[in-house]
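Sequence in, structure out. Go.
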Amino acid sequence: MKNISLFSLCLYLITITPMAHATITDQDFESLRTDLLSLLARVKALEKENLVLRIQKVKNSKPFEQTRMQVSETLPSKEAVKWKGDLSYRYEGIQVEGTDDRSRNRIRARIALQAKLKNNVEVGFRLASGGDNPVSTNQSLGDGGSSKDIKLDLAYFNWKTNHSVNLIAGKFKNIWARPDNNELIWDSDYNPEGFALTYKHKNLFLNSALNWLQSDSKKKNTRFSWGIQGGVNTQLAGAKLKTGISYYNLSVKDRGVFIGDNDEFAGNSFTCVDPTNLIDCTYDNDYEVLEVLAEFKTELNGLPVIVFGDYLQNIAADNLDTAWAAGIKLGKASGRGSWDLAYRYQSIEADSLLGLTTNSDFAGGGTDGKGHIFRGSFAINNQWKLRFTYFNNKRNGDLGQEEDYDRIQIDTRLSF
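Output:
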């Protein structure tokens, strides 16, 4: 029955119709028509069944399955590609002893894409507002409403070779553990460039990196930094203790500035062949920094509490070689109506750290500064937060005339 052709059937009926019409009654003809419609319906059902069987046979064939798998592996699913970003608006007031007060309004905008590929590989990039400054993505408003700069802030791949090891390359987020995310040595906007290898197993962690400060040999002054960090996360009766030790090697001695004017060494000591005209100025020291860090997390009446300490010394410098920070944080601004309050004190001697990478706001940025940081945050909802920060600092006490430095920041931040 499966091979019956509708054309053959119709031809047969056309042939017999003239003979049949003379001999059958209307009742017989109606019965014949009913049987014919039933037969046609059966033929259509059989043809449809036959088509389904042929399609199923093709789907189960090996070439079809291989093609389907290749397409699936080539195109990442919607769940594997994610966009995210944030926008901040800041009012800032700055008072420096001996100079006029300054205020400004600033914005920061960032948008990032992350794609998870096969073989546990993640690829990502991020665009951010800002100029060439490696430790700031903020843009001041003004200049008659001029357009603002957008730069490539991240561009990396992260290969998770197994559950414990990550190999990262490109321009990526800083891998180094920082107690309570303090910015004593690394500004939160600083994204290194090069390679990194991280390892985590149970309560142990190990981070290492080789990062380029200048990679183009055409400039005949290639420089890189490298470091290694290890630590332990310990559970203590419901509390958490993180301890670690780090070594960073940033080779810059006898090299000029990486960015900015010839004398912009961000607080580090330098020497010029022609001091009057600031010609051929170079760093006086390399920065071989040893770090010891500790972070303690617990709860007080249901509120999260973090206490931390961070101590560093540049063993490549003869003096002015020490930096340290300590602080406490109460609460956590996350869900709607939640808040936190934090206090930190830090001291950075002129040649303890490479000023290029340190916090851009504390004491005006760079090294050769000390003082207090007060901060409070309030979450309007999961995506919208308000934050207030006050820097009460002194700067230039090591290599110049010490001066008071005060800075107030009021931020509104939205993320998506």
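Check: The first helix runs from residue 6 to 23. The first strand starts at residue 81 and ends at 96.
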